[in-house]
Every structure is written in C-alpha cells, then in structure tokens.
TrEMBL record:
Gene3D superfamilies: 3.40.50.1400. It comes from the Bacteria. Keywords: Lyase, Metal-binding. Pfam families: CbiX. GO terms for molecular function: lyase activity; metal ion binding. InterPro entries: CbiX-like, Sirohydro_Cobaltochel/CbiX. This is Cobalamin biosynthesis protein CbiX. It comes from Roseibacillus persicicus. Transmembrane segments: none annotated. The lineage of its organism: Bacteria, Pseudomonadati, Verrucomicrobiota, Verrucomicrobiia, Verrucomicrobiales.
Length: 268
C-alpha cells in the first residue's frame, strides 16, 4: 500500500448557491476518507460555495497534494474550471510551492455501474425488467463535448450488464436526448429514471422531477421534499420510478481513494 501519510487530499465539489442540501454528500465523502487515516490532511473546496477553490492552498500545509474532482464527468468543470482555478497545467504541477497531482473524477470509476444498478434495485426491486425502460440522466452542456461521455458510457454498461431491460437510454437536462421527452422514448409500461449526479440537490430534487412531469417548480430544498418516498408515479400513461442520486452511496469514499491510486499507477 502506498504511503500517503505525508500528503494532503483535496476533494473538489460543485456546490450550490441555491440549494442548502447540495454539499452534504461531499462532506460525507470527505469524512469517510478522513476516517481511513491515509492522508495527513483531507480538505474540501467548491466552485459555488465556501471554501472556494481559490482558498485551497491557504488551507493546506502539506507540500504534496492530490486533487480528486467529486464530479460525474471529464468535462467543462474538470477539464477547464478546476485546472484554471488551481493553476494546474498538467497531471502534476508545482504551484505556490506545492506539488499538486490532478486525479480523474469519481464519475468515470468502474464502480459507478454497480452503484447505478444498486439505485434501481433499491427503488424498484420487484419490477419486471422486460417491461421496463431505464433512463440514466446527466446534466449535459454545450460548453464541452466530453460532458456527456460518462452518462453515455454508463448507459451502455448498464445495458450490457442487464440485457433483460427493454431499453437503456442516456438522457440529459440540456441536450438531446432530453429527459423531459422520456415518455416519447419509452415503449414499455414501466420506466426507471436514475439521476447520475453526486448530490440530491437542485437538479435531482427540483429540476428533473419538473421535467419528468410529476413535480411543480416549488423551489423547496431537498430536506423539505419526499420525492423518492412516493414511488411509483402514475404519469403520462406509464408507471415511473425515480431513484436518488449516486452520491449518497458510502462507496464514494473508497472511489475517491482509488482515484488517487489510479493516478499514481498512471503517472508516478
């Protein structure tokens, strides 16, 4: 086992200025890693919350830092925003007198397929899969072509792992195939929708339920809603199950640690 006891781990999350529940999973992931005692320091920084990315180097004493993006995809934020804010110019950068290693995001880890399938099994354990269409939902953006890749890859892996489903579709909030058109792509009586997001926050608790058609745009935080306790929904002539986001899985702490080891195998 690699000795990381002299290094720091910086977990980077998106955060939100609109939903107070969005940052919860990130703190859980950091706590899970901290309990392992592998790193001298474990810190969090956010793009949309405090502490911000620009404060990261002021928080960390260690001279060697591993940065793991707690993001779903290799896209706009992981390839452009985080490197810009942390002044990174490659896999390893010496900046502000510290050696910084930039690891792959959690969402491309092989464990994601298992976690997504677990969400389905927990929310719709008795569903007839041959009568069911499975939708994996990501954000999507025109800012970076790679943003959709993780969602498409996971949909393909789920289709391979569970061929008994009638169909498995990658869908998006802001790109085709749009999740709001889910019923147009569902030829089965049942549908299961899995949000491929870290947090049960603004998107999974508010935006996607509105796009699916079973919620109004109330703007309430997650702690005040019972979205997942109401399954299944009878809507648009279908029986729809909606799962929680993948970020609540305890396994995410192990994934973060594994991405550090993946970086070391590939670059050190």
């Amino acid at each position: 086992m690699t000795d990381l006891s002299h290094t720091a781990l910086l977990i980077v999350g998106h955060g939100s200025t609109e939903n107070p529940d969005s940052s919860g999973p990130y703190f859980d992931h950091a706590a899970a890693v901290r309990e392992k005692g592998l790193f001298a320091e474990v810190h969090l920084a956010f793009w949309k919350e405090e502490p911000s990315l620009r404060e990261a180097f002021y928080m960390i004493d260690a001279e060697e830092i591993y940065v793991v993006p707690d993001f779903i995809s290799e896209g706009y934020f992981t390839q452009e925003v985080i490197p810009r804010e942390l002044e990174l110019d490659g896999p390893t950068t010496v900046v502000h007198g510290k050696t910084v290693h930039y690891c792959p995001p959690v969402g491309i880890h092989p464990t994601m397929t298992t976690i997504l399938s677990r969400r389905v099994e927990q929310e719709a354990p008795d569903i007839r899969r041959e009568d069911t269409t499975l939708f994996v939902v990501g954000h999507g953006t025109a800012l970076n072509d790679n943003t959709t890749r993780a969602v498409k890859d996971q949909a393909a892996l789920l289709a391979e792992r569970f061929p008994e489903f009638a169909a498995v579709h990658p869908t998006f909030m802001e790109q085709e195939m749009f999740i709001e058109d889910w019923d147009k792509h569902c030829e089965t009586p049942n549908a299961v929708v899995v949000p491929f997001f870290i947090a049960d926050g603004l998107h999974s608790y508010q935006d996607i339920p509105v796009l699916l058609g079973f919620e109004e745009d109330e703007g309430l935080p997650a702690s005040q809603k019972d979205i997942f306790r109401q399954n299944p929904y009878q809507i648009r002539g279908k029986t729809l199950y909606y799962t929680s986001a993948i970020g609540i899985e305890p396994a995410l702490g192990e994934v973060i640690i594994d991405q550090v080891h993946t970086f070391r195998e590939n670059h050190l």
